[in-house]
Amino acid sequence: MKPIKYSITVPGSKSLMNRALLCAALASGKSMIKNVVYCDDTNYMIAALQKLGVQIKKYQNHVVVKGTKGKLHSSQRIYIGNAGTVKRFLTPYGQLVGNKRMSQRPIQDLERAVKELRTKNKVNITGKVSSQFISALLMYAPTLGRKVSIQVTGKLVSAPYVQMTIQVMRHFGVKVLIHNSKFLIHPQTYRSANYTVEGDASSATYWWALAAITSSHITVPNIPLDTLQPDAKFKQLLQRMGCVVHDNTVIGPWDHQLKAVKVNMSDYPDAVLSAAVVMACADGHSVISGIDHLRYKESDRLALLAKNLSKLKSPRAVIQTDGDHRFAMAFTLLGRTVDNKRCVKKSYPTFWKDWSKVQQQMQRQTIVLTGMRGVGKTTYGKKLAKQYKMKFIDTDDRLVFNGNWKRFRDAEHRVVKRVYKKINTMIATGGGTLMYPRNVKLLKQHYIVLMTTPLSTIKQRLSRQTHRPSLKKNSTVIGELTQVWNERKKKYYSVADTVYDRR
């Protein structure tokens, strides 16, 4: 797949939205939740809360929730599909029925703890199965009207998700005290509030992974840099593997293979499949630890991951999803066919629409090569253009130096104006083209790659070329090389989207 420069906005986080929906339902007064995502999990949560007596009005980009002052109840059975957060979060309030896979996912320890909390002020809960158990008890505790102590036993998996729960509760007026692995909730009531759902970091991992494996420059702008969503840590993992990361932009490597790594992903398990497809493209064997609890997700992700990774040996093998949305999205990044495309509606209903836009960008993408004279822009550009079935333009081929640099630069700008609108084109620019803001302004919309190589190598190449004019008076092309590089390198690095070091 061709490298691209692209910015993509992901849907809101279903994890945060479902927490906000429940807190708003337990509050008094009306709350507005903005930047909503209507996916399977949030739709099940809205429908279940409505059956529990909550008035919820849905609009295109927000919902209005009229709280019940902590009183949720229904005598009817409520179907929630395979929505884990809905099942766990609403266990204290009603009789919930899921699909076959949901019935296989563990819930007993949570049900026991809820039953105990109805008569006791203290409860123990295991941390090794699902952080959603702890989140469910935390959000339930304020409705009891007394001091509640929740003790987590064993290692808490996906611990950052509990911090997300506490943050949302705080937004709706409830504070949680933490002492090591114990959580204390004093008598409090939820208050109505307006809440904006952050972009979903789990959804962002697919596009960051795509950047890693295709040498692309991809930005996901709507993930707050200070988010508590654990999957935002995926960027740090990609950095370890050789990518460049700037805020919410990931740039895959041009000049080296991705590196194999060993990583514990117990805190961000929803990014494991994105990590796995990147690791499949890396040089060497990678190891992911701390993910035993993936057996209890929408599928047995450990077993299914092993099965699908083995299928990569056959180019025509269809990826088995078992209805698990994350398999469908992650393995699509490798250009693989999946057996169930509809399952992405669980978290990212617009994924296929966004994937289509990314593919269109791959077809249109123009790449601009810049760098010092003699670095090899023409040779490399022709090779890449052939590889990606792109047109090739060398701007210097359209110019003739007549001894006057000012007239040359003016002519160069006219050439840039003629070619900058080209699509699916590899453009090799002259060494000085992007030293001028008027040219940068036109070409910056494209993917700009700075090519570098040791000056000693360039000197050897230029010594065999007699057609290049010197840039400075009373100087030779080779003699001025170091000075020109020192004058230009800061500008080169500032305008380039990535660097290709041709050593």
Task: Describe the secondary structure blueprint for this structure.
Elements: E1 5-7, H1 14-26, E2 30-34, H2 40-51, E3 55-58, E4 62-66, E5 77-79, H3 84-89, E6 95-97, H4 100-104, H5 108-117, E7 122-126, H6 131-140, E8 148-153, H7 159-171, E9 177-179, E10 182-185, E11 194-196, H8 201-214, E12 217-219, H9 234-240, E13 244-246, E14 249-251, E15 262-264, H10 272-279, E16 287-289, H11 301-311, H12 325-332, H13 351-364, E17 367-371, H14 377-387, E18 391-394, H15 405-419, E19 425-428, H16 437-443, E20 447-452, H17 455-462, H18 481-495, E21 498-501
Helix pairs in contact: 1-2, 1-7, 5-6, 6-7, 8-10, 10-12
Shape: elongated
End-to-end gap: 24 Å
Domains (count): 3
Percent of residues in helices comes to 25-40%
Strand arrangement, largest sheet? 18-19-17-20-21
What is the alpha-carbon Rg in Å?
28 Å
Task: Look at the structure and give the mean pLDDT.
Answer: 93
CATH class term of the largest domain: Alpha Beta
List unreliable stretches of 5+ residues. none
| CATH architectural designation of the largest domain | Alpha-beta prism
Can you tell me the CATH superfamily of the largest domain?
Answer: Enolpyruvate transferase domain
CATH topology of the largest domain: UDP-n-acetylglucosamine1-carboxyvinyl-transferase, Chain
Structural class of the secondary elements? alpha/beta
- Kindly estimate the percentage of residues that lie in beta strands according to DSSP: 15-25%
